[in-house]
TrEMBL record:
<comment type="similarity">
    <text>Belongs to the transposase 11 family.</text>
</comment>
<dbReference type="InterPro" id="IPR002559">
    <property type="entry name" value="Transposase_11"/>
</dbReference>
<feature type="domain" description="Transposase IS4-like">
    <location>
        <begin position="1"/>
        <end position="212"/>
    </location>
</feature>
<protein>
    <submittedName>
        <fullName>IS4 family transposase</fullName>
    </submittedName>
</protein>
<dbReference type="InterPro" id="IPR012337">
    <property type="entry name" value="RNaseH-like_sf"/>
</dbReference>
<keyword id="KW-0815">Transposition</keyword>
<dbReference type="Pfam" id="PF01609">
    <property type="entry name" value="DDE_Tnp_1"/>
</dbReference>
<dbReference type="GO" id="GO:0004803">
    <property type="term" value="F:transposase activity"/>
</dbReference>
<keyword id="KW-0238">DNA-binding</keyword>
<dbReference type="GO" id="GO:0003677">
    <property type="term" value="F:DNA binding"/>
</dbReference>
<keyword id="KW-0233">DNA recombination</keyword>
<dbReference type="GO" id="GO:0006313">
    <property type="term" value="P:DNA transposition"/>
</dbReference>
<dbReference type="InterPro" id="IPR047952">
    <property type="entry name" value="Transpos_IS4"/>
</dbReference>
<comment type="function">
    <text>Involved in the transposition of the insertion sequence.</text>
</comment>
């Protein structure tokens, strides 16, 4: 199992770790929590969800946006100190497609009662159809109402992160999934011949060095094209084109006296011409959202 921690604003890998296939994502997340600095924002998927860990993040004066499972117990505290268990099905039954419901102060967990902010997003019909298809393939079952909503929690205040930006911000977590998809579909990292363990480890770590370099070049080229040309380049197309140029980049760095700028300039021009991503109507691109993220991060650091 390969674990990645990725810094979205700079495009840098904070850690690449190879773990046993049966190791716990949640435990790995707890280990990485110890590295968080005050004011930093962590995006967590369901596999890394732990109420105990969320409390540790808050203790470090850091911030999180995380999904929670549909069956997580959610409470509100009444004025008399009593706890009221919320019925999420009733709360969300009248939400329309794309609508957002915010509960600014709730508590999660039967025993922990962790105070947080809940943002509920009702999926559009297209998003719901994709989720149902995924559940069918994974043979995953959940109540109908639960399949139509996303439950997001955060300890960022509405002053610094409005409720209508929480879901968009969390959608950036998909960037790490895209990296893994390109590694599998373009570089076939998951296809390995039967070899001795030592040879496999050499092959794997060598591949990871190259893949991290490709991902780094991909991000910087995409960002540069966005800033200079106001065009968004497809992550998949960009990675594929960089793979074609990879041997040329290696040659100018290690075997020839040619300046790297000449190769990188040709790569840039090729990406502008052939790598453009089809933009969905009224949908913000990752770089649109990242501009919001940068402002949010600045506000959080000032708040801390």
């Amino acid at each position: 199992k390969i674990q990645l921690e990725y810094e979205l604003i700079s495009g840098e890998f904070l850690e690449t770790a190879v773990r046993d296939g049966t190791s716990s994502d949640c435990r790995y997340g707890q280990e990485r929590t110890q590295t968080l600095e005050p004011g930093e924002l962590s995006l967590r998927d369901l596999g890394y969800f732990s109420i105990y860990d969320l409390e540790k993040i808050a203790d470090r004066e850091a911030f999180y946006v995380s999904r929670i499972r549909w069956n997580t117990q959610v409470y509100q505290k009444e004025k008399d100190g009593k706890w009221t268990l919320l019925d999420l099905e009733k709360l969300t039954k009248d939400l329309s497609e794309g609508q957002i419901l915010e509960l600014p102060e709730i508590y999660i967990g039967l025993h922990q009662k962790h105070k947080t902010r809940l943002v509920i997003y009702r999926l559009t019909q297209t998003e719901w159809a994709k989720r149902l298809e995924h559940h069918k393939k994974a043979k995953k079952k959940m109540p109908k109402y639960a399949s139509r909503i996303n439950l997001l929690i955060t300890n960022v205040s509405s002053k610094h992160l409005p409720h209508n930006e929480v879901y968009e911000l969390y959608s950036l977590r998909w960037q790490i999934e895209i990296i893994f998809k390109t590694w599998k579909s373009i570089f076939k990292i998951h296809e390995v011949k039967p070899v001795k363990m030592e040879r496999f480890q050499c092959h794997l770590y060598g591949q990871l060095i190259g893949l991290c370099l490709v991902a780094s070049i991909t991000y910087r080229m995409r960002r540069l094209i966005w800033e200079k040309k106001q065009k968004e380049v497809s992550e998949y197309k960009c990675t594929y084109i960089i793979k074609i140029y990879f041997s040329s980049i290696h040659d100018v760095l290690f075997t020839t006296f040619q300046h790297p700028v000449s190769v990188l300039t040709r790569l840039f021009q090729d990406l502008v011409k052939n790598g453009r991503k089809a933009r969905r109507y009224k949908c913000r691109t990752p770089f649109d959202i990242l501009s919001i993220t940068q402002e949010c991060t600045k506000r959080l650091h000032k708040a801390v």
